[in-house]
Each structure stands twice: as structure tokens, then as C-alpha cells.
């Protein structure tokens, strides 16, 4: 028996397939998505204030090019991509300001916790996803809460599918280890 | 980390092909330790899902919603004139978009945001909140209907209004629970009801020194930001029922709520 994920297809369940044809409708749909946009932004920034700034910038960018949005596609996916691109741009700017030069896209989303150590993280996680290293919690959130496939996560975060798979597994293993439920934890 | 261990996660996410899934299921039947590991991963997944979902319940700052509401909307760039057919189509599209934009801007001109805020007061903020929360499925409320007594005490203490939770089942409305909001700088209690088709109707209350004791109270109907409102005052509080534009019998719902709250 294949286990189907409980949140599979959440985008449809949330009504994001609605046809957006006017700026007013576009704005209304966007505001309705704010809780999920903020959650995704928080997974990138790890700071609530930065997340809200990022969401606001992404909404401004989306509204400037709303006519390019394909109403046949889920608005949330389009917004997530804009948020992610803006965050990469912001990270690059910060790095350049700090004199660290150009940052590749695949590295930009990893900067917050690039040197995260799983063993240290395991002591800090204590069963909380918010305490997972960002590069682990990000794909876990997209799969677990947003119903993304591994391929979709890979495309959004610009990382290989195999990396998505291993990071999601490492995230769950960290949670398991702190819950004391791991019977056969192999690393 | 072994391949088989990673495959458990992929299996849990429905990412294995049919042959791999069958192979893993066969191993799970004969390997209790592997099954225990899968069970632990499922438990971790449930924990993660609950915690990620809990983030959706965090109140969205009203200022953020209002800033986004006020953001300008871009227009489609016109096409080059060297392509007559596409140019004509683009012109038509631009006209359509411009027409839509014109209507949008004209609406703002007739009813500028500042005037709207002054006229609508707290209702303007309630409209923004309703736009955010009416679309929520699992996280419509902060405190569920199963904790109604706690909800009445908690909201009542914060808002400064003693109230009962009206029974609106006669209108096909199921009480879902409530939230604490802030509108016009003052706390607001928001009671949420849902129809079978998912339509959300909210009943909001805020303390108001100008409340009167007329019985029955005068009901005022308004449409703000695409939502229909029926408001009234009484017993030191202001109340409003809000639903989608064109919601049938919102006044009847408000009259019932006014009698019971």
C-alpha cells in the first residue's frame, strides 16, 4: 500500500485555482494567501520582520507584473517563486555589502545555516521544526505543509532532487531523535 | 544514512515508483525494526505538519495587509507596432487592462481611501481581516467552538464586552470559534461561522462608549471593499456581521445575532 501524503493537493483545496482576471481580484487573492506567503518567507529569512518585508516586496513586484500571471496556474506557486527570487537577490546584496562577492543562486538560500551541524542541531531542536537548520526545514515545510513534490521543491529551491530527499529525511530524523522515537537511526 | 532509510521518507511522501514501493513494503512486513523506523518518521511528520500549520494561525499584521492593499498595480507593456496583428491584439489587451485600471482608479477617486477609513472606522479594518481569514480552512480561528466558555471569558476580558455566542444554525451557520483582532487601535472579538458550502460569516464586537439601548437596535447596512456589513450598537458595544458581497439575508442573520449576543 502506497502512503499518500495527507496534504497532497493542498493548493487546490485552498482554492488557489480561482481564475484571477482583474487587479482587484488579484489583490484579494494575494491578501488571502498572506498567512502561507509569510510562512514560506519565514522559512527563508528565519526572521519575522524580514519575512514580512520580503512578502511586502514580493506582493509589490507581483502587482507590477500581474498581467504576466497565468490565471490557469496556482497563484501561491507563482508568489513563492517571486519570494524566493527576491530573497536570493537580497542575500546577494547583503553578501556584496559585506565584501563577500558574488553568490550563486543555489548557495544563496543556504547562507543562513550553511555550517549547521546535525549533532548540535539535534540538541537544540527538541521536537520543534522552527529550530531545525533552515536548509532542512525549508524542503520539509514545502513537502509536509504545502504538498510540493520533491521535483517541485528542487526547482523552487534550485537544489538537486536527491538533495531534497536526503534533507527531508535528515529533518525527520532530527525530530525523531529528539522525540526519543528512533529505533534504528542510521546515518 | 543508508539508502533504505532515506527511501522510507520518500515512501512516506509518495515519491517512490510502484515497484520500489512494493519492494519496500515487502521488507517492512519482515523487518520490525524497519517498520518501527517508519512509524517514528510518521510521528515526526505529524509533529512537523502540526507545527508548520500552527504558523498559519499567527495573526497577520493588519499594517502589512493594508500596505499591500494600497500597493500600485502595473500595466501591461504595449507591443511593438512592427507586428500589426499582435500589435492590434496588444492594443486591445492594453485597452482592456487600461479600462479595468481606469475603473479601479475611478473607484478610488470617487471613494478615496482616506474618506473610506473615516466613514467606515473599524469596519475598514474588519474588511481587511475578513479578506485574510475567510479563506482559511484549518486555521479559521484561534480558539475553537469546543472551547466556547473559555472563548467568551478570554475575548470578553480583552474586548471589555460581556457577550453570549448567538446560535445561527437556523441560517445554516455552524459556529467555528473566534479570534482576537485589533481594529482602529482597539481590541475586537471576532466570532466565526461557516456555511456548508464554506462561506464564512463573522460577527465582530468592540466596546463603544456610544452604544445605545434601543430595542431592537437600528441595523445599518454597508458594502466595504467587496464585503457586506450589517452593524448596530447597544449596551456599550458596537457589533457587525460581515459576509461576502451579495450574501443573502445578512440582515436577518444580524437581527438574530443582535437578539442573542
Task: Give the helix/strand layout.
The complex is a heterodimer of chains A (187) and B (261).
Chain A: H1 10-13, H2 23-32, H3 34-45, H4 48-64, H5 75-97, H6 105-108, H7 118-125, H8 134-144, H9 150-157, H10 161-179
Helix pairs in contact in A: 3-4, 3-5, 4-5, 7-10, 8-10, 9-10
Chain B: H1 3-12, H2 18-30, H3 32-55, H4 62-70, H5 84-110, H6 113-120, H7 122-133, E1 143-144, H8 148-159, E2 174-183, E3 186-194, E4 200-207, E5 220-224, E6 227-234, E7 237-244, H9 250-260
Antiparallel strand pairs in B: 1-2, 2-3, 3-4, 4-7, 5-6, 6-7
Would you kindly provide a written description of the structure presented here, covering whatever features stand out?
The complex is a heterodimer of chains A (187) and B (261). Chain A is built from ten helices and no strands. Helix content of chain A is 62%, strand content 0%. Chain A is an all-alpha fold and 187 residues long. The model of chain A is unreliable at 1-18, 111-119 and 181-187 (pLDDT under 50). Chain A has helices spanning 10-13, 23-32, 34-45, 48-64, 75-97, 105-108, 118-125, 134-144, 150-157, 161-179. Chain A is globular. By secondary structure, chain B is of the alpha+beta class. Chain B has three domains: 3-55; 66-110, no CATH class; 122-260, Protein Transport Mog1p, Chain A. Chain B has a seven-stranded antiparallel β-sheet. The longest helix of chain B has 27 residues, at 84-110. The relative contact order of chain B is 0.09. Classes of the chains: A mainly alpha (187), B alpha+beta (261). At the A-B interface, helix 2, helix 3, helix 4, helix 8 and helix 10 of A face helix 1, helix 2, helix 3, helix 4 and helix 5 of B.
Amino acid at each position: 500500500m502506497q502512503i499518500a501524503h495527507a496534504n497532497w493537493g493542498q493548493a487546490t483545496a485552498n482554492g488557489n485555482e480561482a481564475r484571477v482576471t482583474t487587479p482587484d481580484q488579484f489583490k484579494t487573492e494575494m491578501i488571502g494567501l498572506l498567512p502561507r506567503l509569510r510562512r514560506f518567507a519565514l522559512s527563508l529569512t528565519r526572521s519575522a520582520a524580514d519575512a514580512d518585508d520580503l512578502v511586502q516586496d514580493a506582493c509589490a513586484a507581483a502587482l507590477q507584473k500581474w498581467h504576466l500571471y497565468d490565471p490557469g496556474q496556482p497563484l501561491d506557486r507563482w508568489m513563492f517563486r517571486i519570494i524566493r527570487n527576491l530573497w536570493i537577490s537580497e542575500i546577494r546584496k547583503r553578501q556584496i555589502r559585506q565584501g563577500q562577492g558574488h553568490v550563486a543562486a543555489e548557495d544563496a538560500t543556504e547562507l543562513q545555516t550553511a555550517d549547521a551541524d546535525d549533532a548540535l542541531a539535534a540538541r537544540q531542536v527538541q521536537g520543534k521544526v522552527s529550530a531545525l537548520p533552515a536548509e532542512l526545514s525549508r524542503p520539509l515545510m514545502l513537502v509536509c505543509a504545502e504538498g510540493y513534490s520533491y521535483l517541485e521543491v528542487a526547482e523552487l529551491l534550485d537544489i538537486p532532487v536527491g538533495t531534497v530527499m536526503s534533507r527531508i529525511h535528515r529533518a525527520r530524523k532530527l525530530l525523531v531523535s529528539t522525540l526519543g522515537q528512533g529505533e534504528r537511526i542510521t546515518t | 544514512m543508508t539508502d533504505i532509510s532515506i527511501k522510507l521518507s520518500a515512501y512516506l511522501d509518495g515519491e517512490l515508483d510502484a515497484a520500489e514501493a512494493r519492494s519496500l513494503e515487502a521488507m517492512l512486513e519482515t523487518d520490525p525494526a524497519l517498520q518501527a523506523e517508519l512509524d517514528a518518521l510518521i510521528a515526526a511528520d505529524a509533529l512537523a505538519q502540526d507545527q508548520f500549520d500552527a504558523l498559519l494561525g499567527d495573526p497577520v499584521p493588519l499594517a502589512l495587509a493594508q500596505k499591500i492593499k494600497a500597493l500600485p498595480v502595473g500595466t501591461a507593456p504595449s507591443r511593438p507596432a512592427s507586428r500589426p496583428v499582435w500589435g492590434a491584439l496588444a492594443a486591445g489587451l492594453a485597452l482592456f487592462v487600461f479600462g479595468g485600471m481606469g475603473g479601479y482608479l475611478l473607484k478610488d477617486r470617487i471613494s478615496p481611501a482616506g474618506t473610506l477609513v473615516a466613514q467606515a472606522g473599524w469596519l475598514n479594518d474588519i474588511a481587511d481581516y475578513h479578506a485574510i481569514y475567510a479563506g482559511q480552512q484549518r486555521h479559521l480561528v484561534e480558539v475553537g467552538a469546543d472551547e466556547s466558555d473559555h472563548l467568551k471569558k478570554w475575548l470578553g476580558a480583552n474586548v471589555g464586552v460581556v457577550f453570549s455566542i448567538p446560535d445561527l444554525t437556523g441560517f445554516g451557520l455552524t459556529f467555528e470559534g473566534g479570534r482576537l483582532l485589533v481594529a482602529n487601535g482597539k481590541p475586537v472579538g471576532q466570532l466565526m461561522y461557516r456555511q456548508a458550502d464554506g462561506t464564512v460569516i463573522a460577527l465582530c464586537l468592540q466596546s463603544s462608549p456610544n452604544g445605545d439601548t434601543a430595542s431592537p437596535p437600528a441595523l445599518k447596512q454597508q458594502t466595504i471593499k467587496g464585503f457586506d456589513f450589517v452593524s448596530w450598537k447597544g449596551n456599550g458595544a458596537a457589533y457587525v456581521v460581515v459576509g461576502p458581497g451579495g450574501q443573502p439575508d445578512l440582515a436577518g442573520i444580524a437581527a438574530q445575532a443582535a437578539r442573542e449576543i
